[in-house]
């Protein structure tokens, strides 16, 4: 746990994501102290990136055509990960599924969460929208 709280770790993680064509990640900080996790208010606990426009479409295309099929033991993504409003969330255990990230420059394999926000009003509409983009849902 101590390793994830060091400033050098966050700088390394930011540099890893800057290798890919996403913009600079924003470091998220703890809103309150939690003794059980040994974090204090204001400690860096994650990074987030919001993509829009052309970068969003490039990332989405690379995600479904290149990165997701590189997931170990990949058999399709769950169609149950919608939030009730048509938005889809998925977790990835390794950031190295993206070909832009150089494996030799990664100090530690980290996971990430991806949320795809859609204009759909329901899960069924969101599922149909992503299926129209050939999103690899599990059969």
From TrEMBL:
<dbReference type="GO" id="GO:0003735">
    <property type="term" value="F:structural constituent of ribosome"/>
</dbReference>
<dbReference type="GO" id="GO:1990904">
    <property type="term" value="C:ribonucleoprotein complex"/>
</dbReference>
<keyword id="KW-0687">Ribonucleoprotein</keyword>
<dbReference type="GO" id="GO:0000049">
    <property type="term" value="F:tRNA binding"/>
</dbReference>
<keyword id="KW-0694">RNA-binding</keyword>
<dbReference type="Pfam" id="PF00673">
    <property type="entry name" value="Ribosomal_L5_C"/>
</dbReference>
<dbReference type="GO" id="GO:0006412">
    <property type="term" value="P:translation"/>
</dbReference>
<keyword id="KW-0699">rRNA-binding</keyword>
<comment type="similarity">
    <text>Belongs to the universal ribosomal protein uL5 family.</text>
</comment>
<dbReference type="GO" id="GO:0019843">
    <property type="term" value="F:rRNA binding"/>
</dbReference>
<dbReference type="GO" id="GO:0005840">
    <property type="term" value="C:ribosome"/>
</dbReference>
<dbReference type="InterPro" id="IPR002132">
    <property type="entry name" value="Ribosomal_uL5"/>
</dbReference>
<dbReference type="InterPro" id="IPR022803">
    <property type="entry name" value="Ribosomal_uL5_dom_sf"/>
</dbReference>
<feature type="domain" description="Large ribosomal subunit protein uL5 C-terminal">
    <location>
        <begin position="44"/>
        <end position="137"/>
    </location>
</feature>
<protein>
    <recommendedName>
        <fullName>Large ribosomal subunit protein uL5</fullName>
    </recommendedName>
</protein>
<dbReference type="InterPro" id="IPR031309">
    <property type="entry name" value="Ribosomal_uL5_C"/>
</dbReference>
<keyword id="KW-0689">Ribosomal protein</keyword>
<dbReference type="InterPro" id="IPR020930">
    <property type="entry name" value="Ribosomal_uL5_bac-type"/>
</dbReference>
<keyword id="KW-0820">tRNA-binding</keyword>
């Amino acid at each position: 746990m101590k390793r994830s709280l060091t400033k050098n770790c966050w700088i390394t993680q930011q540099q890893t994501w800057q290798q890919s064509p996403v913009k600079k990640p924003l470091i998220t900080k703890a809103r309150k102290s939690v003794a059980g996790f040994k974090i204090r208010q204001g400690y860096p606990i994650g990074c987030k990136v919001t993509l829009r426009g052309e970068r969003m479409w490039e990332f989405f295309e690379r995600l479904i055509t290149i990165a997701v099929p590189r997931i170990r033991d990949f058999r399709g993504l769950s169609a149950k990960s919608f939030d009730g409003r048509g938005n889809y969330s998925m977790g990835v255990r390794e950031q190295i599924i993206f070909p832009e990230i150089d494996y030799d420059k990664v100090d530690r394999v980290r996971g990430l969460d991806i949320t795809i926000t859609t204009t759909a009003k329901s899960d069924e509409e969101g599922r149909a929208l992503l299926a129209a983009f050939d999103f690899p849902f599990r059969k």
